């Protein structure tokens, strides 16, 4: 009983609502077994009155764990609406909607002789929205999201990794859910790689068997930044395969507008400024674009400034490409080259007008 109380406190401190709910139910069950049904009923009533997002997850309370490290191999999250902005081109959006609809209408597909396995493979550079897609699908289907913790899944004990994989798939088959395997290439590598051991081949074989036997009531989403490492047999296990790449210009524009809106700024109404940022954010992931803009916004707030300026964002882009900051002349040249006036450079950097003018002349 004390173990459940400790877990509830841990969940509360880490703001993990589902952990609090799961172990509160376990505590209530223990109280009933010990004869204190009055307190148990109060606990259940509090949970039910506040947990409107999800039906009971009793079957997902006891998570699988690695026998050697004693660490849980999955996290279970409520299907809540993600705060991450999902902005893709129309083709990707349509494919995601099609995947969701295929799950809703899987019985109709089966009755028409169309095989379906509810498996989605996402690949592409880091930060392009793979995890956000998994959360979005979880929310749209109102299914809990089971995220595999790769660091605890892979065991140093020979044979244990394959057993851990089986435990994870068995766990995710107890109740309809979205099973999310990130960094998928780590356990799905090409089996003819001469540098890998026979153990890895057994892990891949075990993975393939578990995918084939996975519950049709659940969804499997796998994600990787290194699709070229995946075994050929792995690809055939996925009905839907999507590449999430760096956003095109029109999508970058929408992303910038999304992240800058909500704070007073001198950017969104200036076509020249917004176009410059759109070009400078080429080959940068949505996650990194968000990080750069948020850092600029944070500095505004910390310095008691109400307006986000073009200089603020441009300076953060410069820092991304020049982490050591570099010479003042180089910074001045970069800012001036991308449309910041000498006056604004002086006001924002604290450099003298004379120094700024000399730096601009040298760059020219």
From TrEMBL:
UniProt cross-references to Gene3D superfamilies, sorted A to Z: P-loop containing nucleotide triphosphate hydrolases
Cited Pfam families: AAA
Membrane-spanning ranges: none
Keyword entries, A-Z: ATP-binding, Nucleotide-binding
Superkingdom to which the source organism belongs: Bacteria
Entries under CDD domains matching the protein: RecA-like_protease
Domain AAA+ ATPase residues, every copy: 116-248
SUPFAM superfamilies per UniProt: P-loop containing nucleoside triphosphate hydrolases
PANTHER family: 26S PROTEASOME REGULATORY SUBUNIT
Family: Belongs to the AAA ATPase family.
Name the UniProt record assigns to this protein: SpoVK/Ycf46/Vps4 family AAA+-type ATPase
């Amino acid at each position: 009983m004390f173990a459940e109380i400790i877990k509830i406190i841990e969940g509360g401190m880490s703001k993990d609502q589902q952990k609090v709910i799961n172990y509160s139910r376990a505590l209530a069950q223990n109280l009933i077994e010990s004869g204190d049904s009055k307190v148990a009923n109060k606990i259940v009533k509090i949970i039910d009155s506040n947990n409107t997002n999800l039906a009971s997850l009793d079957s997902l309370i006891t998570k699988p764990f690695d026998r050697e490290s004693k660490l849980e191999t999955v996290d279970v999250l409520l299907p809540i609406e993600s705060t991450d902005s999902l902005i893709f081109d129309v083709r990707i959006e349509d494919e995601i909607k099609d995947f969701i609809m295929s799950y809703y209408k899987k019985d109709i597909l089966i009755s028409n002789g169309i095989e379906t396995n509810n498996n989605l493979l996402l690949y592409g550079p880091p930060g392009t929205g793979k995890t956000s897609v998994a959360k979005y699908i979880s929310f749209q289907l109102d299914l809990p999201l089971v995220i595999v913790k790769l660091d605890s899944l892979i065991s140093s004990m020979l044979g244990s990794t394959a057993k851990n994989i089986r435990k994870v798939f068995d766990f995710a088959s107890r109740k309809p859910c979205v099973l999310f395997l990130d960094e998928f290439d780590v356990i799905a590598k090409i089996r003819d790689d001469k540098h890998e051991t026979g153990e890895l081949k057994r892990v891949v074989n075990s993975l393939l068997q578990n995918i084939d036997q996975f519950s049709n009531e659940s969804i499997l989403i796998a994600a990787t930044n290194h699709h070229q490492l995946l075994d050929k047999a792995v690809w055939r296990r996925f009905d839907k395969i999507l590449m999430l790449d760096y956003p095109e210009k029109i999508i970058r524009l929408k992303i910038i507008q999304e992240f800058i809106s909500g704070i007073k700024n001198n950017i969104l109404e200036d076509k020249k400024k917004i176009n410059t940022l759109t070009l400078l954010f080429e080959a940068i992931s949505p996650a990194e674009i968000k990080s750069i803009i948020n850092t600029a916004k944070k500095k505004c707030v910390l310095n008691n400034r109400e307006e986000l300026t073009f200089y603020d964002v441009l300076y953060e882009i410069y820092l991304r490409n020049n982490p050591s900051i570099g010479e003042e002349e180089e910074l001045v040249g970069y800012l001036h080259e991308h449309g910041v006036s000498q006056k604004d450079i002086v006001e924002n950097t604290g450099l003298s007008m004379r120094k700024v003018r000399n730096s601009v002349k040298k760059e020219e």
